[in-house]
Amino acid sequence: MSRENDGSQQGAKVRAVVFDLDGVIVSTDQFHYRAWSRLAEQEGIPFAWEDNDRLRGVSRMESLDILLEKASREYSLREKREMAERKNGYYRQALESELTPRDVLPGVREFMDGLRSAGIKLAVGSSSRNTPMILEKIGLQNYFEAVADGNDIARSKPDPQVFLIAAERLRVAPEECLVIEDAEAGVAAAVAANMRVLAVGAAADDQRADMRARALAEVDWRSLPIRQ
Ligand code: BG6
Ligand code: MG
């Protein structure tokens, strides 16, 4: 893990960790990709795996707007709402039949259990409105002390709202929270929330993060600037 600022020398120690869901706890990229591809194909819009990368951390409607950048005509708001709903139907269908506790990313459970054993509070902060269903499918519906998700917010990442709601529900000050994120929009949201951030996966090179790692499996929870 690389470290920009050593949290232990910088301000308050961390009392809570807020996990992004998609791409940090569980990989849903392939399910999103298949659902967006199916919609794009029906509408005759080109859509490739690289395009999927731009949708990370971004809300459903904003994702649709990105997909429609390659469309050959304008779509009305009514059409867009229907398309977002159609994509979500395909997405939920796939989650329902395929997502299982085995899809929790490597090392995540051990990492979370370690933090919990040290008395650190854990929360989820996700843009996804499907967070409750995903947590249930992977068997973590009762694991977190607080969940803030796409159903709670008016503004999605990079706005800090979702993380601030998570902190409020945990009753922990933002500066005592550490966010774990895999999306650039999420790293920006954590910085805007005045929280420390560990960037992993697709965001692992994001220089705004305090700590960076290719995958959570590479990080020892004891190396975080936590209060013990
Ligand atoms: C984020 C994903 O967690 O949730 C994005 O990284 C997704 O790719 C967003 O668009 C919204 O998800 P949902 O499940 O509400 O359509
Ligand atoms: Mg993510």
Can you tell me about this structure?
- This protein has eight helices and seven strands.
- Helix content is 38%, strand content 12%.
- The protein has helices at residues 29-43, 49-53, 60-67, 77-98, 108-117, 131-137, 161-170, 184-192, and strands at residues 2-3, 16-19, 121-125, 146-148, 177-181, 196-200, 211-213.
- It has two domains: 2-27 and 103-223, 3-Layer(aba) Sandwich (Rossmann fold); 29-98, DNA polymerase, domain 1.
- It is globular, with a radius of gyration of 18 Å.
- With 228 residues, the protein is an alpha/beta fold.
- It has a seven-stranded mixed β-sheet with strand order 1-7-6-5-2-3-4.
- 6-O-phosphono-beta-D-glucopyranose binds next to helix 3.
Sum up the structure in keywords.
alpha/beta, Rossmann fold, DNA polymerase, domain 1, 2 domains, seven-stranded mixed beta sheet, 38% helix, globular, binds 6-O-phosphono-beta-D-glucopyranose, binds magnesium ion
Which regions are unreliable across 5 or more consecutive residues at pLDDT < 50? Answer: none
What does the oligomeric state look like here? single chain
Percent of residues in β-strands: 5-15%
Cα radius of gyration in angstroms: 18 Å
CATH superfamily of the largest domain: HAD superfamily/HAD-like
Residue share in helices?
Answer: 25-40%
Bound molecules: 6-O-phosphono-beta-D-glucopyranose, magnesium ion
Instruction: List the helices and strands in order.
Output: EEHHHHHEHEHEHEE
User: Based on the structure given, which CATH architecture of the largest domain is correct?
Assistant: 3-Layer(aba) Sandwich
Largest sheet: number of strands, sense, barrel closure: 7 strands, mixed
pLDDT averaged over residues:
94
The CATH class name of the largest domain reads Alpha Beta
What structural class is derived from the secondary structure elements?
alpha/beta
Distance between the first and last residues' Cα? 20 Å
Number of strands: 7
Number of domains: 2
Shape: globular
Physical arrangement of strands within the biggest beta sheet:
1-7-6-5-2-3-4
- CATH topology tier name of the largest domain: Rossmann fold
Total helices: the number is 8
